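Example record

The entry below shows one chain as it appears in the dataset: sequence first, then structure tokens.
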Amino acid sequence: MGTWAGRIIAGATIPVNISEKYLKYPVRRSIYKIKLRNIDGIGVPCYTAALMNHPTREVILRTLRVQGKCTVKELANAADISPVSVRHHLSNLLAEGLVEIEEIRHGVGRPRQLFSLTDRAMDLFPSRYFRLTHRLLGEIKETLPPRTVDAIFSGVASTMAKDYAESLAGLPLEKRLERLIESLTLEGFDAEVERREDRIIIRELSCPYFRIGREHPEICMVDQSFIATALALPVERVTCLLNGHSHCTFSIPRENALPEAAAHG
């Protein structure tokens, strides 16, 4: 595979104007030319690997991002393919949770179907959230005293925990651990729990805040405070991705957990 396509699969942003350009890459020992359209004039292709496995998907997704809502016919015109082919791609995108349907009724007859991007799909496009977050946190730390900054991060964790409080309330510890792992996953952590004889270990194999955490390590208190608040138990951080470890690990001594578990019976 050529350098250009290989860099996209690696997840890199390729700021090249693709209007009226051709992408050549070998497939089964043949060379294919695929004409890509500059949909919104920016000329920066969506670089997420999952989206780049077919150029027509790229056109469909970018058209929906620009237009907001489109019919099958409008997408077919944008991608220069048949409505049947568009429906095939839309079925896959619906199954992946990247596209949603809205039906509009106008009197008698079949409803009109409008397709739009989900929040998950919007998150896959290039953004500048990291840069903005970095600047905001930098300004906060420059303006406010450290104790106030810590209180802000603790407040964020408390707010996160409150979002899941209803599903955790009144549950025994084991059930709360299961729900906690589910909640961490929804927040972007790839988490798992290990039950040892003397302690409970919660392991985060990935962290959605890793990049911003390298510049602002205070962000690390968010997930620790979230876990402690959700379980209503003291939690100790044992390892951290920012310190070069392979994952973040949190420990809950059994001596703290057992009385609580017994209370919930």
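Notes for this example: Residues 157 and 225 are 6 Å apart (CA to CA). The first strand starts at residue 21 and ends at 27.
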